[in-house]
Amino acid sequence: MTILDDLTVTHAAPDLRRAADELRRLKEEVSRGPDPEATRRQHAKNKLTAHERLELLFDPDTFTEIEPLRRHRAVGFGLEDRKPHGDGVVIGWGLVHGRTVFAYAHDFRVFAGALGEAHAAKVHKVMDLAEAAGAPLVSLNDGAGARIQEGVTALAGYGGIFRRNVAASGVIPQISVMLGPCAGGAAYSPALTDFVFMVRETAQMFITGPDVVQAVTGEKITHNGLGGADVHATASGVCHFAYDDEAECLEDVRFLLSLLPSNNREMPPPVPGDDSPDRRTDALADLVPADPGRSYDIRGVIEEIVDDGEYFEVHEGWARNVVCALARLDGHPVGIVANQPASLAGVLDIHASEKAARFVSTCDAFNIPLVTLVDVPGFLPGVDQEHNGIIRHGAKLLYAYCNATVPRISLVLRKAYGGAYIVMDSRSIGADLSFAWPTNEIAVMGAEGAANVIFRREIAASDDPEALRAQRIQEYKSELMHPYYAAERGLVDDVIEPGETRRVLIRSLAMLRAKKAEVPARKHGNVPT
């Protein structure tokens, strides 16, 4: 070692240690936020800080933050005197259940989480990294929209986010978690993602706020009444999941990620379990009434079929006449679409069609097989439905199923009438396998309606119309609606006992796991809107 080397070691080491200590103090200061009072105000609103939220989202001690020291370069309106590190957003990556996930979290304590040029550049960076790495992206939203002081530059930042949302759509899972306000153009980014979570009371989403609504329309409404979690979970369908607190919400975000693949080139991760694939499901015979006119809750059927009775319902509060859920069968994730006889008798209407279509498309994008449980009397009739476009909205579900290349299995539990039977993933639109219980009724319409149409004149001319109507109804049932009619014509692959349902589904999905579907060469399809 030369004298110069010795001097370098002797004199540089203390400086490096001091620099490291200063860096550590600086990063701790950045993490704490601008001042203790800002943190206190955040907690007073029952809201966590950005770093506290990230700690709940990721496995312990796995989050790696990048660009924590970034500052904005804007001047004017006092911005040049306020240049906090981080610029109101925390970005980075970590592990969720041992798998890499990227995230960005607005820090409401800095500029109320508003987006400016530097803030947007950080979000763009983490979005690009997530797509390049083929890993999910989670956004923790708690911001006041565009930073007004930066003008059109802030708006351009949102444009960059939207463009990346679309580019990553169907490539990596994108999850938006609404933990505070999200107004104006900012609301379109969550709307472009795959799943939206919201926390009641603290989170709101709207394009124009209550003050503007009142000024323009005269309507007085609160922030939550206009765009709160329950509004979007039950009325608009914007929100997939709503929660009372942030901890419960972020725990379910972690659970959802465990059911999804990291990207569209991977299969969803299987998890070994103790629920036997050959377990019989004899309880289904008691859960589902044989009388097609009697109601029941389809969620009991799902619970009996899936592993350990555990499923994750999507859009639980919206369009309740159809149930969409993620679950596991023999440890493998599966998407379930089911008519819900307990709500509107399980008919398909505008909202149910939209809800199911979006779910089918999401499962197809991320290689999640689909199981469809059919008990549908038809589409909801009415002037309102027709005038609001049930034809084009119903076509969305038809399009989604026809376009899906993942393994698809349909099971007719009881009735399946008319166009709704076709739309609910019948063999004719590409289901790989179709099964039915021995109580199934597959027909153009119910026997009563069919008899009234076919034998209308004969019944009207009869001396005993009611007796003849009953006779013709029974004849129609015997000829065209017996449980084996569709099976005899190859439109149902097999009629199975309810007790065999789980075993048949698991064996069928295992066979279809290696399915390869050829997609026609095209730029993209033209989805009904």
Automatic annotation (TrEMBL):
Pfam families: Carboxyl_trans (PF01039)
PANTHER family reported in the protein's UniProt record: PROPIONYL-COA CARBOXYLASE BETA CHAIN (PTHR43842), PROPIONYL-COA CARBOXYLASE BETA CHAIN, MITOCHONDRIAL (PTHR43842:SF2)
The protein's Enzyme Commission number: 6.-.-.-
Entry superkingdom: Bacteria
Key words, A-Z: Ligase
Identification of the protein by name: Acyl-CoA carboxylase subunit beta
Stored SUPFAM superfamilies: ClpP/crotonase
A molecular function (GO) term: ligase activity
Chain ranges of the CoA carboxyltransferase N-terminal domain: 14-272
Entry keyword annotation includes NAD: no
Domain CoA carboxyltransferase C-terminal stretches: 276-525
InterPro entries: AccD/PCCB (IPR051047), AcCoA_carboxyl_beta (IPR034733), ClpP/crotonase-like_dom_sf (IPR029045), COA_CT_C (IPR011763), COA_CT_N (IPR011762)
Transmembrane segments: none
